[in-house]
Amino acid sequence: MASTPPAPKKRKAGDDEEDAEPIRDDDTWTTGDYALVSSDNVRFRVDLVHLLSAISVFRDMASVAAQGADRELHFTDDSIETAAVLERFLTLLIDATVDDKDIDRFSNFKHLASMTRFLVKYDCPFLMTVLGLRVKEMSSTGRSTLFMFIIGSIMDDTDLCISALSKKRRTWGETSVPDTNTTRNLTNFHCLNPQSLAYNRWSMIPGPYLYALHRAWALVGDSDDLKTKFQQVLDDVKGMSDPQWRRSSAHPPAARNT
């Protein structure tokens, strides 16, 4: 395991209430014997049994919850433990679904990508499998093919990335944004050509996968050998890399009484 995440936020009795951001309840997730509080102070209630069934690191907390009082788990990582992430996590956990908008619009997809990192951090292999299946089912456009590759790379799911590379060739369409703008993808380039990607998409891909994608394109370009070459390069890179390159700590924040 990697190092433990930063300690969760705690309010002390003497804290200035004006300085403390109030916790508000989510409008949808309002019932359950356990509460998750996001890094931006939104409370989600859920039955602990659902958490225990899906997330191994939560199982150590069962004896604490069994004491009878409600418990709250406070998250502190503003990059992958926000309300937008916890909402998507609970939807995947309880309903086994992904919103169509999350795989079609980058403004939503960035939260789905953060949720994927959350699943990796807290070691949720079953939910990662469900997520991969849902994303593969939903991948029908160039944008969603790229998003499928990004999700696969974050989860270290090579098969999902290969599936993305095996999709029908698609190119980025025309936009009014100049090619010099790094927030856009390059017109008429293949959607999985890393040279075409806007920086905010390109930077989401973990290093070994990004290198393998660049190297494969340089060696064979847009050919039927692309996915095979990508796999070969990725295997070589992983053989030279720290095996923990993709993982953050799987230790959860501390639970406390409400």
UniProtKB/TrEMBL annotation:
Domain of life according to the entry: Eukaryota
Region Disordered, annotated ranges: 1-26
Name used for this protein in its record: BTB domain-containing protein
Species in which this protein is naturally found: Vanrija pseudolonga
